Structures are given as C-alpha cells and as structure tokens.
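We close this part of the discussion by returning to an individual protein. The sequence in question and its structure tokens are set out directly beneath this paragraph:
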Amino acid sequence: MNPTTEQLNAPVGWLVTGAGGMLGQDVLARLAEAGERATAMDRAALDLTDAAAVRRALERHRPAVVVNCAAWTAVDDAETREAEALAVNGDGPARLADACARTGAVLLHVSTDYVFAGDATAPYAEDAPTAPRSAYGRTKLAGERAVLNTLPDRGYVVRTAWLYGTGGANFVRTMIRLEGQREKLDVVDDQRGQPTWSADLAGLLLALGRGALAGTAPPGVYHGTSSGETTWYGLTREIFRLLGADPDRVHPTTSEAFVRPAPRPAYSVLGHDRFAAAGVAPLRDWRAALAEAFPRIRRVHEEEDPA
C-alpha cells in the first residue's frame, strides 16, 4: 500500500538547536544511542534571531520533536546587554514555537531556575510563581511564556540548574583545575541547588519527547534537575573527594565574597512532582550522577589541559 501525501509529509525525527553546546552534544549522543534520527543545528547552522531561517529549517527538516538547547548563557553580560540576550532567550523560542505550530512539531524548550526569586525555603513546584531578579532570568521567562502560549498542546518547558558535563566549561571542570593550582579554596556555602549532569538531563529530554509523541506526557512545565541538594561548597568537597584530594582544603564562604553583576539565587532547589503525570522517573541523586560522570569529565579535562 503506497503512503498518502499526508503520511509522506508527516513530521519525523528530532531537531536539536544549540547542538554545539554541552547539553546539545549530550542530547545528540542520547538520541543516537536510542536509534533516533536527529538533525544537529549549532549556532552557525541556525540563528534563532532570524525568523525566516527558523521557519526554513523546520519546513525543510520537518522534525517531530524540536529540542531547544540554544541560549544566551552569559548571565552577568545580560545585565548590560539585555536586549541581545532577549533576542536569543525570549524571541528565539518564540520563533521556534511559531514554526512548530506551522509544522506540527513538539517543542522541548530548556529553561532555568533563574526564573524564580531564589528566596524559597522548600523546593519550587513547577507552578510556583516566577519572579526573576536578573536580566538573564527575565529573558528566559519570556521564552517560557512564548512557548507555552503558542503551543498549549505541544509545548514543554524543562527548567534545569547547576548543569555540568564533559562538553564545555562548567563548575565541576573549574574545580578540578583549581584543585591542582591552589592549596586552599574558598567556596560559597549560602547558595543551595541541585548539581545536574547534562547527560542525565539529555536522557530525561529523550523520555519526555517520546512521551509527548505517545500522548502520555502532558505539555507544560517540568523540572529537570537531579534529586537531593547541596551548596557550591558541598559540591566542591565532593569533587575533591572524587579526586582523592583532602576535602578540608575547601573552606566555606558567603556570596558577599564573590559579588557578581547579576544576583545569584540563594535557593535553586526545584521540585519534580509533574513527572508522575508523565510516567517519567525524575533524575537520580546528584551524588550518584556525579560519581558516574566524574571519570569522564576528569579524562576530558586531562586531555584538554594536561598541565
């Protein structure tokens, strides 16, 4: 039986924006492991600030699922360049959502804990009120709203935080480097969050996308962070332990010791209750993930920075 024109034009496969970044690389790896067909589009291949280019990309590739890993992530620079950050973090997802509405694709949009005020004392639920305190947070919230408003039936926002991995600069790799350079490290102990391995988040996005296509995962907001919580100080002590270094070389300090242009959330712990409705398990405890990720991150670090 020959396929109909509608069947021939039906969306198929995945398209990953921001494919050159740490998370984008891990998403592509997970999709390949799962036997999914994927189109990788890094910044050079797709500029999210170009509406026509976004439309052309989706019309050409006709993906069933788009995973938006592209973002302006220079948190401090956004304080003085908010319009530029908004063009990527707010207008970019809006253009993707419009294109997905035209082609029938599901959109998984990666967002951040910075959309919250960071002054809570219990994990933020997915429907907790947003109140960003930084330009970066405001631009990311704009992107969330665009996706949810334009794609009420096929739009998914996945907030993450404290992301680390092998494919780019991040806190874990920085601490590995500093352990070899300094006898003592002062690390902030008054910010709480959930260190999250980008490879674990990539697996979660795969499961959520498949659930979206199967109709088992309701659209809306999800929180893609590891279980458990710690501070930057606690995370650094664990990194030292995994390195075989003395964790007591790490000393606690306060945020006032490291003043930055953009305010950092004091509390970035996110709740994961909505995954029950999707039939998807939340991510594992941050310590278990770090223990598995660490040998890979250390190997990459040693290959790229043998000194």
Observations:
- The chain has eleven helices and twelve strands.
- The longest strand covers residues 106-112.
